[in-house]
Amino acid sequence: MPRHKGKFITFEGVEGSGKTTQARLLGEYLSSLRIPVVVTREPGGTDIGEQIRQILLDSDNRGMTPETEILLYAASRAQHIRERIIPALDSGRWVICDRYSDATIAYQGYGRGLDLGLIAELNRLVSLELEPDLTILLDLDVQEGLKRARKRGEGGNLREGRFEEEGVAFHQRVREGYQELERRYPERIKTISAEGSIEEVNRRVIEIVSVLLKS
């Protein structure tokens, strides 16, 4: 894997696990240490990626096939890596990303049942061999996560709820996919409980990231 000047941290987890909030808080923490940082997300992160995001998450697009879904995610990631992530890392900035390639394995592989070998090949094609230095997996009971996500949606963007409309069984498969990834890559993926207050979870995140800060 090519080495870059900056560090690459990703957040993963089921719906409602608090990734977006924790990614933002970690960015603020690193900035307080005078570490230059970019906080971004997938799908999205670029103008093209954000347009793809609208298609992927729009609850009106319930008829989207799994194959269409994964190719749209791959297109967004290919643009994101080349346009934003790698240039930031090469300039010495740290990049914090809300979801990355592990999400494709968990959601489209374990959740949708697409072939894991083909997903691995697709990830290799778009990623330019870029792997995170650290992945923080926020683990949460799927029913609690959906409850949180739907509550959030009541006051937010109702059109970005396509995955939240999936049944509990789908989200349980996604969670199991993440757990399998942690078993496979224990050095990179660190799981913390997403239970408790935002502040409590943030303290757990900082404790893990402190190891990377010392490296």
Explain what this protein looks like in three dimensions:
- The protein has helices spanning 19-32, 47-57, 66-90, 101-111, 116-127, 142-154, 168-184, 198-214, and strands spanning 8-13, 37-41, 94-98, 134-139, 189-193.
- With 215 residues, the chain is an alpha/beta fold.
- It has a single domain, classed as Rossmann fold.
- The protein has a five-stranded parallel beta sheet, with helices on both faces.
- α4 (101-111) crosses α7 (168-184).
- The longest helix is centred in the middle third of the chain and has 25 residues, at 66-90.
- The model has no long low-confidence stretch (mean pLDDT 94).
CATH architecture: 3-Layer(aba) Sandwich
CATH superfamily: P-loop containing nucleotide triphosphate hydrolases
How large is the radius of gyration?
16 Å
As residue ranges, the low-confidence spans are none
Oligomer state of the chains in this structure:
single chain
Compute the separation of the termini in Å.
Answer: 18 Å
Helix content: 55-70%
Return the string of H and E elements. Answer: EHEHHEHHEHHEH
Give the neighbour order of strands across the main sheet: 2-3-1-4-5
Our count of domains comes out at 1
Shape: globular
**Biggest β-sheet description:** 5 strands, parallel
Q: Tally of extended strands?
A: 5
CATH class: Alpha Beta
Note the total helix count.
Answer: 8
Q: Provide mean pLDDT, rounded.
A: 94
Q: Give the DSSP E fraction (strand runs of 2 or more residues).
A: 5-15%
Kindly name the structural category: alpha/beta
For this structure, the CATH topology is: Rossmann fold
